[in-house]
């Protein structure tokens, strides 16, 4: 699930919205009212069925027969980004007065079947999708067309001598299975964590200057 991020400043907010994935793969938009010293109350709930999500994919790929996974990646200012079957990126606009969201884009991302199984974490930041592999390789995609924009190889960078943490890399090399990561809002820094709880921070500006 994701709480909606509202970026409009100077506006008083009396209710909050939560976008969740149901047990059958449906999307549920729940709006709550929260006042000081009062219980939180549910104001409304909208639902977008898994069948509708699957129909959207079938229009682009007739071989798609079932919906295996649904993951909400972001929810900002009425618009959400959802990952279907670890391969399809769908953007929906939830209008205030509408009972169903409006699709704004749908595309497949360029991942091999082996990469899809190796992907351990996804995140969306600044119209960009980041996909982390267990090996420490990160793929970067545009969320509107699914195009591959770049890749980031964390172990190779840490072992290259350009990173400022040789000691960290000696620990990293013995436990190279990554599990999650996060990217800063301005796309300047990525932090990844291994299954052994070792955190690796990379200055992305420095990384791409070094790569070029």
Describe this structure in words.
Helix content is 17%, strand content 43%. The protein is α+β, with helices and mostly antiparallel strands. The strands form four sheets. It has a four-stranded antiparallel beta sheet. The mean pLDDT is 85.
Short description:
This protein has 212 residues and is of the alpha+beta class. The chain has 5 helices and 15 strands.
Unreliable runs, pLDDT <50, ≥5 residues?
none
Radius of gyration: 19 Å
Strand order of the largest sheet: 1-2-3-4
User: How would you describe the oligomerization state of the chains in this entry?
Assistant: single chain
Work out the helix count.
5
- Tell me the fraction of residues in β-strands, as a range: 35-45%
Helix content: 10-25%
Query: Largest sheet, described in full?
Result: 4 strands, antiparallel
Task: Quote the distance from N terminus to C terminus.
Answer: 38 Å
Q: Structural class of the helices, strands and pairings?
A: alpha+beta
Order of secondary-structure elements: EEEEHEEEEHEEEEHHEEEH
Roughly what is the average pLDDT, rounded to an integer?
85
Count every beta strand, where a strand is a DSSP E run of 2 or more residues: 15
Gross geometry: globular
Organism: Characodon lateralis
Protein name: Spatacsin
Layout of helices and strands, plus pairs?
Elements (H helix, E strand, L loop, with lengths): L1 E2 L11 E7 L5 E7 L7 E8 L1 H9 L11 E7 L2 E6 L3 E6 L8 E7 L4 H6 E7 L2 E6 L3 E6 L5 E6 H6 L6 H7 L5 E6 L5 E6 L4 E5 H8 L1
Antiparallel strand pairs: 1-2, 2-3, 3-4, 5-6, 6-7, 7-8, 9-10, 10-11, 11-12, 13-14, 14-15
Organism: Characodon lateralis
Protein name: Spatacsin
